[in-house]
Description:
Residues 21-515 form the AAA+ ATPase domain. Belongs to the RecN family. This protein is α/β, with parallel strands linked by helices. It folds into four domains: 1-137 and 457-527, Rossmann fold (3-Layer(aba) Sandwich), CATH 3.40.50.300; 138-187 and 340-436, no CATH class; 189-335, no CATH class; 530-560, no CATH class. The chain has 19 helices and 15 strands. The chain has helices at residues 35-45, 73-81, 114-121, 130-135, 139-146, 152-187, 189-202, 206-220, 222-254, 259-288, 293-313, 317-335, 337-383, 433-436, 439-457, 473-486, 499-503, 529-541, 547-558; strands spanning 2-10, 13-19, 24-29, 61-69, 90-98, 103-107, 110-112, 125-128, 390-395, 418-423, 431-432, 461-465, 491-495, 507-516, 519-526. The longest helix is centred in the middle third of the chain and has 47 residues, at 337-383.
Amino acid sequence: MLAQLKIKNFAIIDDIAIEFKNGMTTLTGETGSGKSIIIDAIHLLIGERASTDMVRHDKDKAIIEGLFFVANSVIFDTLKEIGIDGDDETLIIKREIAKNGRNICRINGTLVTVAQLKQIGVNLVDIHVQHDTHRLIGTDNYLYILDQFKDTELNNLIVNYQNHLGEYRKLVKEYKTFIKENKKNNELLDLYQYQLTEFKNANLSLEEYEDLSNKRTIISNYDKLYENLTISSSHLKDHILEKFFEASQAMGKIASYEKKYEAFNTVLNDLYYQIEDVTNSIGNELQTLDYDPSELDFIESRLNEYSILKRKYKMEIEELVKYSDELEDRINSINNFDDQIESYKQNIKSKFKICFDEALKIRMKRQKIAKNLKEQVIEQLKDLNLVNATFNIEFNKLDDSVDELNNTLFTDQGFDLIDFHVSFNKGEPAKPLSKTASGGELSRFMLALKTIITKKQNLSTVIFDEIDTGVSGITASAIASKIGTISKDTQVLCITHLAQVAAESDHHYYISKIENNNRTTTNVRLLSQDERIHELAKMMSGSNLTESALQSAKHLITRR
Length: 560
């Protein structure tokens, strides 16, 4: 539940702190007094976007802070994922919105992003504002509503389906890309064949190019190589090798006297054999070193062929070799187009069938959920004085003539499109909700859904902002009773202009505007029993209180 709400410098609110308790709390007051601003503040605590326009005039920042007591394991799991301790079942959410656009969110003192805050908020509080009822009449929202009731089995089905769908979409994309590339390649086939022939005749090889480049360097520098190899060999043979041998021999004679002499002897021996190996290798180099002008001419000629192709294609040798291989693949692809297209089609057909079958499993599971939801909604509508209501959840019909390449059939959630068909009058056929329901009927239908969803989601708090708009009389009493029923299991905050709804609450706050130092600000006051009776009487009869209105208000409260 939401135990405490603090709001500072937010719209016309200067600085207020409201204590909330279990059960149902009503917020009433004149239009524009700040009731909806309080709900807007709670919206920010559960991750809604903030606007700097909401910061109070001449203040640097607005601060909203909420203390929640929670017992929802999903929230604790989410907190753990983002590295926040929530074991004590207490959640403090704080939001700061600065005039300069800076937006700070904290959960239990830890900085979080708005997205992370929303992850928590979606399982913490459900807020129904006035436009939500009208938003209901849109088929895009119906599947989302139905999926609020999905279970582990449906979740697993959707995950499995999405894996196959990803593979299917990738295959279709590859197929379409292949068609485009083949068309382009066909137009350039003559050019590709000419270029490939040129590369084949040139017999390109990265290994040959590097080898020829090395050989040219050696032959071009023959004199310098011969001179310096000769000098190195002479010095090693005449002086160094012999001196290392003698030093090693001398150290060997005393190696047994002490370990460090033995180590010296080992190092000298290793150095002697290493220098001997180098001396022999240099000698071999001198014997094999050769200068052949005709070979140099061949190398220069061959390297020139490479240079011509590099300039012509504006590529390095490695890129030329790669492009040559690609040309071969493109020409083979053109020549084997029919076979490859058939292979693609078969694979796509196979993957399409798997996706279709998996989506069908999802539909069958959803239809079971829909049947259960339908029965629950009808029961709830009866409680809301719609005893003759009928309700059906209609699934879209599937076209028998499917096109395996038309991946628009599938969405990330399957291929289901649903519509809510209702009738609120006896003898009338069920029609789409968007074409049937009046404002009052929509409100009751939404309340019926909210009643069921609230139990399913295990929410801490549910907020109704004038869900009773457009109703009166017996219907208002039915709505009040239903909201009261919800409050038995979940904390409910309710903004209302109906006395019947306000009377149903366990706690009643009156919201008003006051002027202080030429500034308007919101004032929040918890009403006593007598004050509640007077407020309910005013809601029924206006500012001119009558004795009958007071008696009616007293009756509304005492009959709870």
